[in-house]
Design a protein that fits this description.
By secondary structure, the protein is an all-alpha fold. The chain has helices at residues 6-22, 27-40, 65-80, 86-99, 108-121, 125-137, 141-152, 161-173, 177-188, 194-209, and strands at residues 47-48, 51-52. Strands 1-2 form a two-stranded antiparallel sheet. The termini are far apart.
Length: 215
């Protein structure tokens, strides 16, 4: 099973262009097209040698610079209309990722702030999860993990594998390996895509292998 259906992505972008042609003064339509272009620009870097590559691991030289340039221009165009909506905020987040020359150059504080604005418009646990990850990546890993654990207390994300995967990643970064392995295993049980499954199982093995031996 492919991680992403490129034919469906291309068709979605085509329809997004049609929508912008039909309703050119709607900033959310422009934001949606920008969002799709910016996400699709990374398609060639998401999987390498059959392995899923996280955003942090991707070879950014493989990103489609033409799609990024068009997406960035559309984000600016939409935001100038001063009628902010969810698609524009998501596109602005994607733009910050696209503009970073390397993972460590990503403006995570700004991304966290944009997720905060998105949360005001769309108060969903998934948006809150993304904001918590951005907080963690800004350098406050323990605070991000605390926010994720608070989100998990309601049980609303129990069946969402990315909740467990995000929590596992932060635990791994904090060197809490046994907890990270358990969280990765929880994500494995909720994943059906083989490429994602292989990635999570590899993470389980890595965290288990790195655990200190009991004397």
């Amino acid at each position: 099973m492919d991680l992403v259906r490129h034919d469906l992505c291309a068709e979605a972008i085509r329809l997004g262009r049609v929508l912008c042609e039909l309703l050119p003064n709607q900033p959310e339509n422009i934001g949606l097209l920008a969002l799709m272009l910016l996400h699709d620009s990374r398609r060639n870097a998401r999987v390498s040698e059959g392995r899923l590559r996280t955003l942090e691991e991707q070879d950014r030289s493989l990103w489609d610079q033409a799609a990024i340039s068009e997406g960035l221009a559309l984000v600016e165009k939409a935001l100038r209309m001063a009628r902010i909506g969810p698609y524009q905020l998501q596109a602005a987040i994607a733009a910050l990722h696209a503009q970073a020359s390397a993972s460590e150059a990503t403006d995570w504080p700004q991304i966290a702030a944009l997720y905060g604005e998105l949360l005001d418009l769309n108060p969903s646990p998934v948006v809150a999860l993304n904001q918590a990850v951005a907080v963690a990546m800004s350098g406050a890993i323990e605070e991000g993990l605390r926010q994720i654990d608070d989100l998990g207390s309601s049980g609303s994300l129990d069946q969402y594998y990315l909740f467990h995967a995000a929590r596992a990643d932060l635990l791994r970064r904090l060197d809490r390996r046994a907890e990270a392995a358990a969280a990765y295993r929880a994500a494995v049980h909720l994943t059906s895509n083989q490429i994602e499954l292989d990635f999570l199982q590899r993470r389980v093995r890595e965290t288990e292998e790195l655990q200190p031996l009991t004397p």
